[in-house]
Amino acid sequence: MKKIGYWLLPLTWMGVLFYSSSTPYKEQNIKPFMKTNLDLSFLEPYLQWVSFTYHHTQVSISNLGVEGLIEFFIRKGAHLFSFFLLCLLVYIAIHQTTKMKHATQLILSFCLAISYGAIDEIHQHFTPNRTPYVGDVLVDGVGALLAVVLLFLISTLRSTKK
């Protein structure tokens, strides 16, 4: 029964991600809040150089405004952090409930996190004002990969101390 408890954390986090993906973009849009409550105009000279294309949209101050640019990075940072955390939670569950080799645990944790990222993007296809995009799965993958690197480094440090 204790082993099931370890899986409740990643499953709960998946539920949070599912709920977030079920929320239309208009309900998650933080640009109006930033425009009303924050004066971010001081950032314009520092962010003027930022310009690239993401999902057929130019990401720049001239196209999105300061608030839109900041929101873009907050949203992508949320992807990265969410799947970093998911990978860590899945790893803990696997580590505590199986006797697999450490490398297998890391690879499986990464693969499960990425798979959920892909499923999450497919789910967004059915959510109003949301669009699936493979680029977001790649951002999710970077978050999961960072978790794997951290876990690998911790494991390596522990083994060298022994």
Automatic annotation (TrEMBL):
<protein>
    <submittedName>
        <fullName>VanZ family protein</fullName>
    </submittedName>
</protein>
<feature type="transmembrane region" description="Helical">
    <location>
        <begin position="106"/>
        <end position="126"/>
    </location>
</feature>
<feature type="domain" description="VanZ-like">
    <location>
        <begin position="7"/>
        <end position="154"/>
    </location>
</feature>
<dbReference type="InterPro" id="IPR006976">
    <property type="entry name" value="VanZ-like"/>
</dbReference>
<keyword id="KW-0812">Transmembrane</keyword>
<feature type="transmembrane region" description="Helical">
    <location>
        <begin position="138"/>
        <end position="157"/>
    </location>
</feature>
<dbReference type="Pfam" id="PF04892">
    <property type="entry name" value="VanZ"/>
</dbReference>
<keyword id="KW-1133">Transmembrane helix</keyword>
<dbReference type="InterPro" id="IPR016747">
    <property type="entry name" value="Phosphotransbutyrylase"/>
</dbReference>
<feature type="transmembrane region" description="Helical">
    <location>
        <begin position="77"/>
        <end position="94"/>
    </location>
</feature>
<keyword id="KW-0472">Membrane</keyword>
